[in-house]
Specification:
The protein has about 220 residues and is α+β, with helices and mostly antiparallel strands. The protein contains eight helices and four strands; from the N terminus they run αααβααβαβαβα. It has a domain of about 120 residues: NADH Oxidase. Helix 3 runs antiparallel to helix 6 and helix 4 runs antiparallel to helix 5. It binds flavin mononucleotide. Flavin mononucleotide binds next to strand 3.
Length: about 220
């Protein structure tokens, strides 16, 4: 089941055992504070260099099975926004229905909304076949959550955005994705929201997503 215990050196063991600087309640508080602020509701100012560096470093502390680099992040600087806008428009033209001028304008605008914009890309399988798309997407999700929480900890706002456009030929070409790569979602950050936020979503209660395997369960094959 791959649940073997790795050998750790004495200093590593001591580090793992020492209490963290942050309390469990503070950690939970940070998670409860994080919420999606859509790019269209973001103020037009990006995190500064130091804040951005911490967000990017946070990603490195996520679990990554086999340490083979299941994911990578592509930053989209202001200088590349026009090219991104064109890729959004080109993706519309790849569809069966010709886009209306309004659709084209809406698509273009999306490229300029997020003050700090990045794309999360995963490998569909490891080069040596040691990991699956599910594992790689999980690793990427862990990295993304680290980034979102680091943004929240710095008083920034953030969001993830996905959609069919990411799999279009135009996007794949712009981001130079290899045949072995899959664009999961954009991640956006801004220094603040542009407007007052509505109440966030109601979180599920633990019993809604947790069950316990019964010791006497009879296995059945579907
Ligand atoms: C992989 C992924 C893709 C997402 N894509 C979008 C998106 O395209 N548009 C959007 O408004 N929200 C998107 N979201 C954000 C969710 O809608 C949001 O997390 C959810 O509504 C819960 O709100 P919260 O983040 O404030 O807890 C995405 C979230 C995930 C995990």
């Amino acid at each position: 089941m791959g649940m073997d215990c790795e050998q750790t050196s004495a200093p590593q063991r001591r580090m793992a055992a020492s209490p963290p600087d942050v309390s469990a309640q503070q950690a939970l508080g940070l998670m409860q504070m994080r919420r999606t602020v859509r790019p269209r509701n973001m103020a037009d100012s990006a995190p500064d260099v130091a804040q951005t560096a911490l967000i990017l470093e946070a990603a490195a502390h996520a679990p990554d099975h086999h340490r083979h680099g299941a994911w990578r992040i592509v930053r989209v600087p202001d200088s590349a926004r026009e090219a991104l806008a064109q890729a959004f428009v080109d993706a519309l033209h790849e569809r069966d229905e010709p886009p209306t001028p309004e659709c084209i304008e809406r698509a273009r605008i999306k490229a300029f909304r997020s003050p700090l914009l990045m794309l999360m890309v995963v490998q569909t399988t490891a080069a040596d076949g040691s990991s699956s798309l599910a594992e790689n997407c999980t690793a990427a999700g862990c990295a993304l959550q680290n980034m979102l929480l680091m943004a929240t900890a710095q008083g920034l706002v953030s969001s993830l955005t996905s959609g069919g456009t990411l799999q279009s030929r135009s996007f794949r070409a712009l981001f130079q994705l290899s045949a072995n790569e899959y664009a999961v979602c954009f991640v956006s950050f801004a220094s603040a929201a542009a407007c007052a936020l509505k109440p966030g979503p109601v979180r599920p209660d633990v019993p809604q997503y947790v069950s316990t395997l019964a010791a006497s369960s009879t296995p059945h094959v579907h």
